Amino acid sequence: MAKMTEIAIATDRFLDRRAAVDWYRANRRRSAELFEIVAPEAHHDRPIPLRNPIVFYEGHLPAFSVNTLLKRGLRDPGINPPFEVLFERGIDPEDVSAVPGASAGWPSRDEIQAYGRAADRAIIEALETRDVMREDNPVLRRGLAALTILEHEPMHQETLRYMWHRLPYEKKRTPRGSPKPVLGGNPPAREAVRIPAGRATLGAKREEVPFGWDNEFEGHVVEVPEFEIDVHDVTNQDFLEFVGSAGYDREDLWSEEGWQWRVENDVRHPHFWERRDGEWVWRGQFHEFPLPPAWPVFVSHAEASAYARWRDSRLPTEAEFHRAAYGTPSGDERSYPWGEEPPDHSRGNFDFARWDPVPVGSFRAGASAWGLHDLLGNGWEWTSTVFGPFSGFEPMASYPVYSTDFFDGRHWVMKGGSLATAKTLLRRSFRNWFRGDYPYVYATFRCVKG
Ligand code: AVJ
Ligand code: FE
Predict the structure, then answer these.
(1) Cβ distance 79 to 115 under 8 Å?
(2) Which of 61, 156, 213, 408 to mutate to test the pocket of ligand 1 (most atoms within 8 A of CB)?
(3) Are 163 and 54 in contact (CB under 8 A)?
(4) Is 59 exposed, middle or buried (0-12, 13-18, 19+ CB in 10 A)?
(5) Is 151 helix (H, G, I), strand (E, B) or coil?
(6) Between the CA of residue 67 and those of 63, 77, 185, 238, what are the distances in Å?
(7) How many angstroms separate the alpha carbon of residue 21 from the centre of ligand 1?
(8) In this structure, what DSSP letter does residue 200 have?
């Protein structure tokens, strides 16, 4: 697998302090811009009932960096210990009844921002001057804690974006210079390709990447039998057929939990869709559009699985996704679907270039060896693989609870990346996951047979 030059800020013995500080500052600037979008009075709102209110995240980002690099790594006392407990970790409850008490108890935004500024000064000083790379400390080995905080922040920039997506339009303002949406016309014809049996590498070897989250290790090779997979993600137009043929009323298409979620919440269409005067509209980040037929449909795992069954197919396994995305007819494997070159905006809709998706198949330069489109960007892709540890898994020293709590059989692996995924997270081994009934995230899917 090729070197990840874009983030080669650390080698076994050397951390490019300048690059680390630049990356940290760029992260903080992007987060600040995101918080500025939200109207002042809405910062204590909870746009997703299963997540903490917006203010939590403004505290969580600096507190996570303090907890991880300064306290766990450098064994400093911290900056504001009560904040470092309050803002330590987000929540992932099963249902709203398990969400801890409403807005009571959250500090003011001014206090949180003052904390953020103090944290930034201390983190930058540490990255510039302290011994943040030490072989004798597993938290600092190969710059682990520094790289953990540098990847954590962009990961939450995606959380913020899909959370903002749920805010009413009057509670946010469109940043100047935002690109115009590309609605497109009709989608390309539905098409599938046959992928012959062959090997796929999942995860990464610890020594082969500068950084990976714990669930990416150990890298290993699996044999994948032959299968047939969609060239494009399932589109709004495709999914409209499912809605039109009463897919939401047919219990036989749904898993037991999926059906329960559907009924209890009276789900009748994708969360991003709404009905207005007898027409479907798509609720974009800053505008509503007549349903763009060629955009990938964003749905929960439960909806994706029901649709796949309706089409007499199924979701790909994690291994099939790898084989389709990174495999080649010659048997070699690539670092990215298109080859070895690092991601840029000609390859897909990612790295915060847009607020909403674009039509499927918009990036010819992003196609895989088998001719599949949009494997990275535009929307994460649900798989049929339950999120679990690879053989050789060990909780990471810098943040041991990153994955383990989610190895509960109720979370599913998503691969690829969305419009709101930073390009630094687009490495082949990166794994994302959510509960099967989580409809808020920019997640789509494609169907497989065989
Ligand atoms: C990997 C996206 C599921 O948002 O819950 C952020 C990432 N973990 N802070 C999440 C995460 C701790 C996580 N996901
Ligand atoms: Fe976090």
Answers:
(1) yes
(2) 156
(3) yes
(4) buried
(5) helix
(6) 6, 9, 48, 46
(7) 23
(8) E
Contacts of 325 (CB under 8 A, 6+ apart): 337, 368, 372, 375, 376, 415, 416, 428
Confidence band, pLDDT 50/70/90 cuts, at residue 98: confident
Fill in the amino acid letter for 174. T
> How far is the C-alpha of 164 from the C-alpha of 173, rounded, in Å?
11
From 13-22, 189-198, 201-210, the region with the lowest mean pLDDT: 13-22
The pair of three-digit structure tokens given for residue 159, joined into one six-digit string: 């959380």
**Amino acid type, 82:** P
Give bridge partners of residue 414 from the DSSP assignment.
Answer: 382, 432
Q: 54-65 and 17-37 helices cross at what angle (nearest 10)? A: 170
Residue with tokens 């709102």: 45
Residues at CB less than 6 angstroms from ligand 1? 90, 152, 155-156, 159, 402, 432-433
Compute, in angstroms, the gap from residue 317 CA to the centroid of ligand 1.
Answer: 21
Q: Cβ–Cβ contacts within 10 Å for residue 63, how many?
A: 26
The C-alpha atoms of residue 115 and residue 125 are separated, in whole angstroms, by: 15
pLDDT digits (tens, 9 = 90+) for 34-62: 999 999 999 999 999 989 999 999 999 99
* Contacts with 77 (C-beta within 8 Å, 6 or more apart), sequence order: 71
Ligand 2: centre distance to CA 305 (Å): 28
Q: What is the pLDDT, as a whole number, of residue 93?
A: 83
Both tokens of residue 201?
């590498």
> Which parts of 314-370 are beta strand (E)?
none
Q: Measured from the CA of 156, which atom of ligand 1 is nearest?
A: 6
